[in-house]
Amino acid sequence: MSEPVAKQNLSAEQWAEAALDAMASSGLEAVSVEPLARRLGVTKGSFYWHFANRDALVRAALELWERHETTDAIALVRDEPDPYERIVKLFKRANTSHRAGRLYLALAAASDDPAVGAVVQRVSAQRLAYLQQSYQALGLNEHDARLWSTFAYATFIGNQQVHRDAPEQFPSGTEFREYFKLMLRTLIPHGLAAVAPIQNAEHPHVVSLHKTVES
Amino acid sequence: MSEPVAKQNLSAEQWAEAALDAMASSGLEAVSVEPLARRLGVTKGSFYWHFANRDALVRAALELWERHETTDAIALVRDEPDPYERIVKLFKRANTSHRAGRLYLALAAASDDPAVGAVVQRVSAQRLAYLQQSYQALGLNEHDARLWSTFAYATFIGNQQVHRDAPEQFPSGTEFREYFKLMLRTLIPHGLAAVAPIQNAEHPHVVSLHKTVES
DNA sequence: TTCAATCAGTACGCCAGCGTATGCTGCAAG
DNA sequence: CTTGCAGCATACGCTGGCGTACTGATTGAA
Fold this sequence. Notes:
215 residues; DNA-binding
């Protein structure tokens, strides 16, 4: 993001972080050794000291990303016993963290690459699983929770996409806050159980609000 | 899509279509002259007869894509006077046409390129505008229609993304049909709209609101 | 038949990015 | 101070894709 800051003695992780930066702003293809070295103010000689080849760098970056994503999610989770608030927090983060969003989109776009695809799939699956779990904690049965969580997750991702691809059209400022509220009250079937915070995903007295669908 | 079919006398449009195929399956970077020529069973000599350079091919492909997207949308529109059914049809198409979805995602991923970005933005804006218009026809005021249409569009896009990035997790078969219905009845505030125009987009079923964000 | 336009093939130079080999420098242990 | 090694620089060869110049081949009209 900045100029060739002539840092001394880079570490492998710094290379990986730089690779993630490059991805976030210009996609996986932008993770190329010589340009990256230039941006870091060194030459290839340094790179091939820390990594066997470009692929190794990509792998390291992916690993870093996956770790970040999972630990970040966990960190966001730990302190929040109320499932409703948990989901709200996840929404918030998804619609706030700009770099994380672009990173996800960049990696997802490159998921033809089997290495990338595998990581993207794991991260997606983990997010979805956690969302579903939160919806169940809200009082939905497993099936409905799966539908709603997929719905909500798709909307997360879609917002990032629209925000990037049509920034002019995407709500901002006050309107965004309204938009956000609309999504919240639409995507979280409240009025359900959330009154008393539930610690375990056991379904209490649950009335099926949006009744399970059937043809 | 198939093997080097040794066709005779390709046209520029065939090159452009092939370019779109390449994009859909492997991104913009895959639109490279020599590989494309191989896939088409010819050599570069042919290509540079039809196009000045690679950029011209990309531009032609983009033009083709934009035309397809707009005419397709219009074609889908013209015969359907009922706004509800119009939106349903758009939903259906968004969740059905696999190639179109991948194409959009590929182009969106490459929207750093200013030429690509401009087209993506125009197409997105047009889709959003049409969706908003349909929501207004449902009886929502302009503002609410804008919020709901953005919401719905983001969900469209997000579905494509999730379907591509986590195909295992995405509903399919019967479950998909349920999922689809859930989205429809959640994202289209019918019931309230069709008869009497409504100015406030309150969800009719929803009773109480958790106090949402600190806003 | 001729010939000109249209389309494709061949051969070449160029460049960016990858990877390798090897040389240079500073710093810390002996 | 010298030795060793971590960290980076330099120089080189290789490949793939771009673009150019030129040479065929086919076809339809004069």
